[in-house]
């Protein structure tokens, strides 16, 4: 491991491991780590060998779709909640025994997967004391201690499995939230708040609920372990309603159902499997670049069905998967009538027969079953490749199917209405600055080693530092082979365009300017303007993404431009946040493929006064 290119990659990406090996100046230490890992992995295999379940042995559409419950405040009608993370058992399919999961809830007895839905009203702030009830629990999933992660025990990089207390922290995705309550990846804490990350500020989170009505979701966000904590079940919906400004008479009550789609893998005992062998095991023993499960769950049930009356239904769709994209369609050929995006209502309904959702994205849709005969069955199908867009096709026998709608008798006339005008979105203009940023991937001997934003490591100094109230264009150049859903905290933005560029020519110039990615500490990163490499054909956002977005698909070979105002969503005039958005610990932007976000594809950003 001297001066060849691969050493640089290893040092860049596993700087802590490489750093230790360097300090002790001994190849023996590295070998010891590897041997230790191999022995422990072999022992773990012997004791815990999980036999994978063939998902085709599970009868599809056997269990009804559950609707998540409503999260209850500590006193009825109040605005203060106490919500813990708990280990629970829950039956995910009637042929399976209960699965060990983690759920959110006021108590262990009331915790569920997915977590109950916060149903809040615009202008009515709430407070949530989030706690960690995983005392005594050892993480059932393979925590990789060679990536930059929370590391509560301060062990530093090691190939050993992690047996210590589990760090968790909750982020409200899409929320206009102060940084101290935003679930910063370094704001994690262990049970009893015994050990806390350096970004931890307080126990009780404040949610002002000042933004327009929309579908948000909450999920775990602990540094370098989010993929595993969310995999265990830590996610739920958070709906903001705005009775004064929302369209009246959309389908509601029993006819408005949130739907979170997730993929998982099970063993024959009905327990979750997450692969426990990395693709570069001598560098990262467990980390894999994307998790793709072979079994689909909707609202925590495997391949459920929903009885629907022949009328309109509103579904708030969320892709809550670690890495899988879904390109949804209905077997009846009917359209989804999309009424909202991540951050609120579209200006007008948009009909699509294919609906593509990357991890983290939401789509608020109406499906009109009116006139369909009782007994009609409609499959919600998926044909997105994994990884997206160039990977393996979705197996039509398994992940190509999501859930089934079965038409039953109408119980009452459908009085719901989809208005022709839903919202008035002011297009953002007047960019103060344009940032040119890149998405990078570093390949190791067995495949991807890590992904980076703008060639920098997570812990490099902050470089994205917009001024409060300013508007910026972020022009993001995807240098990888995959689509990455890029997400910014605090804000909702608008997509300006996507445009092809000459990848190889650009890469040549980029590599000449930045020979080592990620740039090692102390080395200056040199942005390379993409203008000269742009190709013809600027593609505006699709009609159903031309609204407020907090997560946007950035395709390979393309430059995606978004316009962001670092101020509350909405009116043409800049209104102030009801909190100090410049306060510590600041915010982050990242890829929402959780395996990427956990291994360097995340950067801090701060708002400047
Ligand atoms: Cu949904 Cu920072 O994440
Ligand atoms: Cu978020
Ligand atoms: Cu990514």
In brief:
10% of the residues lie in helices and 32% in strands.
Provide an overview of this structure:
The structure is a single chain. This protein is mostly beta strands. The protein has 3 domains: 66-241, Immunoglobulin-like (Sandwich), CATH 2.60.40.420; 253-407, Cupredoxins -  blue copper proteins (Immunoglobulin-like, Sandwich); 433-605, Cupredoxins -  blue copper proteins (Immunoglobulin-like), CATH 2.60.40.420. The protein contains 6 helices and 30 strands. It has a 7-stranded mixed beta sheet, with no helix packed on it. Strands 22-21-23-28-25-26 form a 6-stranded mixed beta sheet. A 5-stranded mixed beta sheet has the order 12-20-19-14-17, with no helix packed on it. Strand 1 and strand 2 form a beta hairpin. The protein is globular, with a radius of gyration of 23 Å. Mean pLDDT is 93; it is low at 1-36. The structure holds CU-O-CU linkage (C2O) and copper (II) ion (2 copies).
